[in-house]
Amino acid sequence: MTAHRITDMRVHCVSIPARAVHSHGSGDVGGINVALCELVTDSGLTGWGEASPWPVFTGTVDGNAAALHVHLRPHVVGRDAVLIEPILADAEQALVGHPEAKAALECALLDITGQIAGLPIAELVGGRHRDSIPLSFSVANPDFDADLEDVARIWDSGVRIFKLKTGFADHSFDLMRLEKLRAFYGDAIHLRIDYNQGLPAYDAIRLIRDLETFRPDFVEQPVRMREREALAAITRAVDVPIMADESVFDVRDALHGAQMRIADIFSLKTAKSGGIRRCLEIAAIARAAGIEVYGGCMFETSIAHMAGAHLMAAVPNLTLGCEFYMSTFYAEADLALAPFPVKDGYVHVPTSPGLGTTPDPDMLDRYRTHLFSSGEP
Ligand SMILES: [Mg+2]
C-alpha cells in the first residue's frame, strides 16, 4: 500500500453571522464560529474537518484551534493519513477533552482515506442504511412573529419537523408558541422541544407534563448536564420520551447513562464525542439498551453537517431524523463550493468519495479570522 504522508495541517478559524439570533435555555447565539482542520498529503490529497464548539456546552474556537495547531499537530504531520484509529488514539493520549478538535481531525483523515479508497465516509465506517434523512429546523428566535415567518418559509420547502427551543423566557411563552404551532399546522407537523438545560430540576416534571398536551415527539435535555439523577427521574415520571444531549458526551457517559436510564433517546454529535466512529460506538451502546439515537448538531457550517450526514446514514436504526439545517436556513452564508444537499425536507447523503464537500476558497478568505499553518512545504 502506498503511503499518503501528511505534510501539513492548516487550521482556519471562521466566523459567519447568522440571519437571526437564536435563544436557548443556555444562552443566545448570533453566528457560527468554528475551526476547520485542513490536512494535505504528499500525494496531492486534501481532507477537511470542522471543530464546532459552543462555549456554554463544549469549548471555544480558540481552545480548539490551539488543540489542533499546538497539541495534535505533532501526532499528525508526517503520519500516513489512513492510520485513522492509531492517530486518534495518540490524539486522545496527548490531550484531554477538546472532542470538537478530535472530530475535525478524524473527519479530515476519513475524507482523505475515502478519496484514496474511492468510497464515501458512510461506506468507510460500515455502509449506509439510508440515502436520505428527515430534517428538523429549530424554532429559537425570541421574536416569535419573525420565527413564524421562517417556519412558514421552511414548511413550504418541505420540512415537517420543528424543534422549539424552550426555557429561555417564561413557561407561558413556551406554551403559547406550542399552542399556536399545533393549532395552525395540526397533526401534519412534528413538534419537538429542547430546553438546553433550562428547567429547574425541582419543578421539571410538572412543567414538562404541561407541554405533553401538545403531543411533542420528545423533550430534550430539560435539566443541567450533570443532574443525571434528575434526568433519570424525569424520564421515569413523564410519558413523552426524554432525550439526553448535553448529558451524553462520550462513550462512558453513554454507558453510564444507559445503565441509569437517564433518557429514552441520545442525541449524537460528532463535536461532543470526538468524531463519527465514537458516535457509532455510542449508538451501539444505545441500541443494546433500547435507547433511540438522533442526529443533533452544534452551530456548524456544512463541513460538519456533512460529517453528521455520513454518520446518521451509517447508524442502523434511525426514526427521529436529524437537524443539519444551519447552512441552509440559519447562517448568512455557507463555505462549501456546493450547497448542503437539502431537498423536500430531507438531507441527501452524498455518494462521492470522502466527505463529499470542500470549502470555496473565496468564501474561506471572506469569513476566515485566523489561519495557523506549520509552513512545511
Ligand atoms: Mg440540544
UniProtKB/TrEMBL annotation:
GO BP annotations listed: amino acid catabolic process; peptide metabolic process
Record's keyword terms, sorted: Isomerase, Metal-binding
Family: Belongs to the mandelate racemase/muconate lactonizing enzyme family.
Residues in Mandelate racemase/muconate lactonizing enzyme C-terminal domain copies: 144-241
Protein name: Muconate cycloisomerase
GO MF annotation list: magnesium ion binding; racemase and epimerase activity
InterPro entries assigned: Enolase-like_C_sf (IPR036849), Enolase-like_N (IPR029017), Enolase_C-like (IPR029065), Mandel_Rmase/mucon_lact_enz_CS (IPR018110), Mandelate_racemase_C (IPR013342), Mandelate_racemase_N_dom (IPR013341)
Transmembrane segments: none
